[in-house]
Every structure is written in C-alpha cells, then in structure tokens.
Amino acid sequence: MRRLLFLLLLAALGIIVYCVLIPFGPSSETFVEIPTGTPTMHIAKLLKRGGVIRSELVFDAMHMVKGGTLKAGEYRFDHPARMAEVYGRLRRGDVYTVSVTLPEGSNLFDISQRLEGAGLGPKEKFLAAARANVNLISDLDPNASSLEGYLFPETYRFARTSTPLQMQQAMVRQFREEAALLGIQSDYHHVVTLASLVERESPIPAERPLVASVFVNRIAKGMPLMTDPSVIYAALLDGRYRGTIYASDLQADSPYNTYRHAGLPPGPICSPGADSLKAAMHPAQTNYLYFVAASADPSGKSRFSATLEEHAHDVAAYRKAVREAGSR
What we know:
- The protein contains 13 helices and six strands.
- It is mostly helical.
- The longest helix is centred in the N-terminal third of the chain and has 20 residues, at 2-21.
C-alpha cells in the first residue's frame, strides 16, 4: 500500500512538474478575456478553455503558492509558454492593447478613420459618439456640438474592446492635462477654435504665433479670415469634399465658410497640438493681414504681409517658386 501511495504521489508530482515546466499553449494568435471581478478559479477555467494552460488545478495551486492579484483584461497568447510565464503576465496586468497615434491637426473624420483601421470599431460609431458625448467638455465649452478640437493628438493604447466613449474619455482627459500645463483657464472655445485654424495653416511651430496674429488682426478689422482649411471642413461636414476646393465650396453658405462669414467659425476644425494652443493664447504682435501658407509654398516657409499690395507680390513670388519647382 505504501509503495502504491508513493507511486501515486510520484505520478502526481510528475504531472505537476510537467504542467508547470513544459511550455504549453497556442502557436497562433489567441485572445482570452478576463472580465473584472472574475474569481481565480474561474480564471483558470477561462485559460484552460482558451488552450493556454494544461491544468486548472495546477494553476490554482500556483496561485496559492505565489499569491498576488490577477488582473482583468484581454490577453493575447501566440506561443507555447511555461505556466509561470502565463501567471506572471496576469499578475502584472500585461493586457493586450492596440497603439494608435493621432497626429496634430487630425479632425474627427481623420481620428475615426485611424481607429477603424486599427480594428477599434466602425468610424461611423465613433463619429456619432463624438456628437453624443459633448457632456465630456460641457464645463469647458458649453455650446460645443461635438468633441472636435478636444481629442488631444497623442499616441494612445486601447484595449480591442474599448468603446468610443472610453476612447474619447481618454483623449479629453489628455486635453485637460495639456491645457492645465499651458495655463488655459477660460475661453476654451475661442482658444481651441483659433488654435485649430493655426494648426492646419502652418506645419512650422515657430510661424504659428505669426499666423495667429493674422487671424486676430483680421477679426479686429471685421475682415473674413478666408482660410481654406475651414472651407474643407465645411465640405467634410456636408459630405461633399472631393479632395480639393472648388468654386462651389467657396460659395457654400456654411458657417464654417470663412470666405463668406467674418470671424471665427462656430467651433474647432481639428485637434490642435500644444504649439498651436500656445500661439492662440499668445499671438505675435504684428500688423500682418495676409499670408501665403508654408504648406503650399515650395520655399518651405510662409510669406506674411501687411498690405494687399505686399500680399500680391508674395503670391507672385509663390507662383514663381511653384513653376521653378515643377521644372526641376
């Protein structure tokens, strides 16, 4: 009898060692979701069901020995691993996330497209949520019709199961942190709207206070801003943007058409970065009323002027530079 018990104990020990030390698991991508509040015993069942561990009992025994809290979330397994590696990942909370970078100047349409491309849900749902979740910024911009401008450009990591609301909460939270660092304490609507125009008009941070000064000076004189990015945004909102600006776009009776309507548009047209927000807060002191944007100029810099005559000269210089660049 003792010999039999010894052999059984030896066999059990062998099984435990085999389960613990010999790698096991899928060789192709497999995901296991651990819901919040799942008991350890049920976690073992989920891992076993997902083909990640050999034995629930051995995993439970490992938890009794090692202790620690196993974190909820979605985990990705793509190679056979020792049970200790699997256990360590759950204890660290090494959950699977998708990385998405939102460049400065991205608008809601750009952001939703990037998220859809990363497998984080249909763009239509994100756009609808951006209009429905304006309560996220109601204390900053009470009259906002969407979250446009307040989804800060940054690299984010989201779980594949993240909802549009959860992603937008993270982006707005990042905006609030950046705004606090910059010292924005009031008039968010004006600052963010102006900054969004500045962002789309110049890729050069050093020029942005100058661009902001042009807009501020034109507003002070009651002149329309006549900025193409806002016209493009109006076309995007109406679902008629065709990749370039047509005469019909310049004539469209949209409040975002800054050729027809003086002053700032009704709201931001994109998510500005820190440099553009700073430029909107502290525009340069100039008498400039016109500029040719660097983004369109082969010289790589914007051309600023105070009079229509100077602007005409800059436009002629710009067109000459375009011709010369095209002949090379």
